[in-house]
Structures are given as structure tokens and as C-alpha cells.
Design a protein that fits this description.
Shape: elongated
Helix content: 10-25%
Radius of gyration: 44 Å
Strand content: 35-45%
Largest sheet: 20 strands, mixed
Distance between the termini: 94 Å
Oligomer: single chain
């Protein structure tokens, strides 16, 4: 503060002895001394702090101003005399992802299973409609103060934005992202996508473990013996499948062969396309399309089994199709036992068999309950009281009897429905070149056993008997449906 009789430093400033500079943002104040004075000459002048206050600079005075004061003017140079507190920007917004991106093997401890030692390939996955990401809003900043003592507002953090790629939809004004399909979520750069296909660049084997994925799977190698590939979409194998298991909610395509070693198992809700099947089990709700040969295998198709290509051979094992079996060669010159059945969906046949077994068990329960009822009736007729043990058995028999009667009704009705399906079935076995002896052909409930070689034949049912006619090329769409 200026004392009485002291001269203001403004006079020296006007004379060009020093100059005050304040940054445009008001965060720094500096003095540049051009013509220094001696300490004696400065005695007559006010303190530097008083001068700065008169200029409006009241915050952030430096230690040099507080300790040396106007003595700063005794040396030429540039001096920081006040510094404000800069505002702090708020934390930037961010995108939070509700999944992990890394593919890794997940080991399951099971000392009784050698296969579990290889683990299962863990593939990050999301389902249709699932929230995969959300935006975290930016945070508020901390205000600053300039050298004039005024508050300086702090900018908020930068807002984040979800960049939607393939199969991702942004909702709620950009706040959340949901998956439009089931699959593997990935972030490339800053773009979020959901890929319905997972590709393995090599074999499925010890290096990968078993594979389970919510979308489709492409294996660019071989599926090795003892391993499993499960997919809620399609499965495509670029090479071959050994004694492994493949299960798909969609279709399966194997560019090479399926060499099952009597342990290989494949099940698809769609179609199956494969070049060769040997000693394996293949089940498809749609068609089974084989490019060259099926040997000693079990084939079950809801619609058609077609073996074409150069060989077009079906020999050994069992082939069952709901509509059609179409091959070039059926059986072998050696009389290999081969069974072919058409006209009834194999799954319905299996259901029919299961219901018959269940119905047999239910009727055994009814018979046992009847025995208890008869025993209790004879006791009562003789005038004897029913002991507690028999009363308990009677109560249990009544409960099991009522349940069994309901089950018997359900099973009987379903059997009738299936038998109606059996009655109105249609099916054919078509052989372009030849059928060898020891081939058993069943159409519906009628069976024909080939005793002698037959060429260019069609087998179908007429008047509850298998009839042989000349080969007729069917109108069948080959490929994926």
C-alpha cells in the first residue's frame, strides 16, 4: 500500500524504466526491467505490491514480489510477478464396453476327462438385442482464478461417441449400443462391430481346445479327433473332420471328408454338405449332400440324402431320409450290408420308438398299481382292517395311477398322430447306376431285400409293397436351403 509521501511507480513506468505485461488469458503478469535503478533511488517510491494492486493484480503474487518487492527494479530482466490458477478440464467422456475382446482358452478342471486338459476356446460373444456398450458422460472441470482474482470457468471434458460398425445399432440419442445379431463383438480403431462369424486360421485341436460360439464358425484347417465344435449358426471346415463332434443350429459344410473312426458325430438343424463320409454318424434336419461316397456310416436326414459326384457310392451302414435317397451306386459287389429307409422323417421314427418304450413303462406302472388296488379290495372284502403300511402303499398307488393314466392318454394320442403320418408318407430310393445284393430298402413300413444286382432303378411303395421301376431323375434343389 502506498505510504504518504511515496511516489507511484507509474512514473518510472512512463519513463520507460520498466513495463508491465499481462497475458491475454489473465493467467500471468510479468515485469520487464529496461533501466534499472539503485536501491537508494527506489526508496522514494511505493512498494511493488501496491503498484500491482492498483493495476488490479491481486491474486497469485510470486514469492519474489513478497520478499524483494520493488528491489526487482534494481536488475534488468524479465520477472514473473503473479500467476493465476488455470482451470482444469473435466474428465473426457468414454465408451464403456460390456464384453472382453480377447480370445483365450478356458481350462476346466476335471481329472476324469483327458479332453478337458486342452480346455475350451473362449470366444467373446453377445446376443441379439443385448447392450454391448454405453457412453459415460464427460466430467465437470475445476474452475481457475486469474491474476485479477476472477474465477475462470472450466471446460467440461470432451464427450465420447459410439461409432457403430456392422450389426450394431445406437439408441437413446447415442447413449447405448445394442447388437443387431448374435456374434463376436470387436472394436477396430474406435468402431464397434458384431461379427456373426468366427474364423479359426488352422486346426481345431490341442492348440485351441473345443470351440463353442453363438454365431457361425469357419475352420481353415481340420477338426482333430476328440475335439468338439458347437455353433448356433453354420459351421464350415476347409479341410477334413476326424473322429470329432460337430453340432450346429444352422448348416454344416466340410470341404474334405468326415473320417469318423466310428466315433465321429455331426448334427445340424439345417443341411450337411461333405465330400466323403466314412465310419461316422451324420444327422440333419434338412438334406445330406455327399460329393463322392458314404461308407459304413449312419446317415439321418429330415428330407433328402443325395450322394453324387464321380463315384456317388453309398455302401455299408444305415441311411434314413424323410423323402428321398438318391445315389449312383448302392451297396458293393462284396455284398456289404446296407440299409436304406425313406418316407418317414428319422426324428419322427425315433420319437415313435421312444413313445412306445415310455408307453410300455407307463402301463407297467398301471399294472403295479392295479395289484395294490386288488390287494386292498380283498382285505376290505374279508372284513380285515388295512394296516398303515398297506394304506401308505394304496395312497402312493393312487397317485402314480392317476399320473400314469394322464401320460398314457398323451402317449396314445401322439402315437395315433404319428401312425397317420406313416400312412400318408411318400418316399423314393433312386439309383442311377446299380444296386448290389444285401441291400435292405424300407419305404414306410414295407421292406425289400435286394437278392440280385439291379441297374437304373427307382424304388417306391405301392399297395403297401416296394415296387421297382426305371430310374427317374427327380426335381431336387441341391445345395443350401
Amino acid at each position: 500500500m502506498e505510504r504518504e509521501g511515496e511516489k507511484p511507480l507509474d512514473n518510472l513506468e512512463r519513463d520507460g524504466c520498466f513495463q508491465l505485461f499481462v497475458s491475454t488469458d489473465g493467467m500471468r503478469a510479468e515485469i520487464v526491467v529496461k533501466k534499472p535503478f539503485s536501491a537508494e533511488d527506489l526508496v522514494a517510491y511505493e512498494e511493488l505490491e501496491a503498484y500491482l494492486k492498483r493495476k488490479g493484480i491481486v491474486f497469485g503474487l510470486t514469492e519474489e514480489v513478497r520478499t524483494r518487492g520493488k528491489l526487482l527494479l534494481t536488475s534488468s530482466g524479465r520477472y514473473l510477478v503473479a500467476e493465476g490458477v488455470r482451470p482444469q478440464r473435466g474428465k473426457d467422456g468414454e465408451v464403456r464396453y460390456f464384453f472382453e475382446e480377447e480370445v483365450h482358452k478356458h481350462f476346466v478342471e476335471d481329472p476324469e476327462s483327458e479332453k478337458e486338459l486342452f480346455g475350451i476356446l473362449h470366444i467373446p460373444e453377445v446376443h441379439t438385442g443385448e447392450i454391448v456398450a454405453e457412453v459415460i458422460p464427460p466430467g465437470e472441470g475445476v474452475p481457475g482464478i486469474n491474476v485479477f482474482g476472477k474465477e475462470v470457468p472450466a471446460p467440461c471434458g470432451r464427450p465420447a461417441k459410439i461409432r457403430a460398425g456392422k450389426n450394431v445399432e445406437v439408441l437413446e440419442d447415442g447413449k447405448v449400443a445394442v447388437a443387431k445379431v448374435s456374434g463376436r463383438p470387436v472394436v477396430v480403431g474406435k468402431t464397434l462391430s458384431v461379427l456373426p462369424v468366427f474364423e479359426i486360421d488352422g486346426d481345431v485341436g490341442p492348440a485351441t481346445g473345443d470351440v463353442r460360439f453363438v454365431g457361425s464358425v469357419i475352420v481353415r484347417g481340420t477338426v482333430r479327433s476328440g475335439f468338439t465344435v458347437e455353433s448356433e449358426g453354420d459351421v464350415e471346415v476347409w479341410e477334413s473332420v476326424e473322429a470329432a463332434a460337430i453340432k450346429a443350429q444352422g448348416s454344416v459344410r466340410i470341404r474334405g471328408g468326415f473320417f469318423g473312426g466310428e466315433k465321429g458325430f455331426l448334427e445340424a438343424q439345417g443341411n450337411v454338405i461333405v465330400k466323403v463320409v466314412e465310419s461316422a454318424t451324420v444327422k440333419a434336419r434338412g438334406d445330406i449332400l455327399i460329393g463322392e461316397a458314404a461308407l459304413h456310416s449312419f446317415l439321418f436326414a429330415g428330407r433328402n440324402i443325395i450322394v453324387r459326384g464321380k463315384k456317388g457310392l453309398l455302401a455299408g451302414g444305415v441311411a434314413k431320409a424323410g423323402n428321398l435317397v438318391w445315389v449312383k451306386v448302392l451297396g458293393s459287389p462284396m455284398g456289404t450290408k446296407t440299409e436304406v429307409s425313406v418316407g418317414i422323417d428319422p426324428e419322427i421314427q425315433e420319437e415313435y420308438r421312444r413313445i412306445q418304450e415310455n408307453l410300455k413303462k407307463v402301463r407297467e406302472v398301471l399294472q403295479e398299481a392295479e395289484k395294490v388296488f386288488q390287494l386292498a379290495w380283498r382285505k376290505q372284502k374279508s372284513g380285515a382292517d388295512l394296516e398303515p403300511r398297506l394304506l401308505g402303499a394304496l395312497q402312493r398307488a393312487k397317485e402314480s395311477y392317476e399320473l400314469a393314466k394322464e401320460q398314457e392318454k398323451v402317449y396314445t394320442e401322439r402315437l395315433s398322430e404319428i401312425e397317420e403320418i406313416f400312412e400318408r408318407h411318400e418316399g423314393k430310393v433312386l439309383v442311377e447306376e446299380r444296386v448290389y445284393p444285401q441291400v435292405r430298402i424300407t419305404i414306410g413300413k414295407s421292406t425289400y431285400i435286394v437278392r440280385d444286382e439291379i441297374v437304373y432303378a427307382s424304388f417306391y411303395e405301392k399297395d403297401k409293397d416296394v415296387v421297382i421301376g426305371s430310374f427317374e431323375r427327380p426335381r431336387v434343389k441341391e445345395g443350401w436351403s
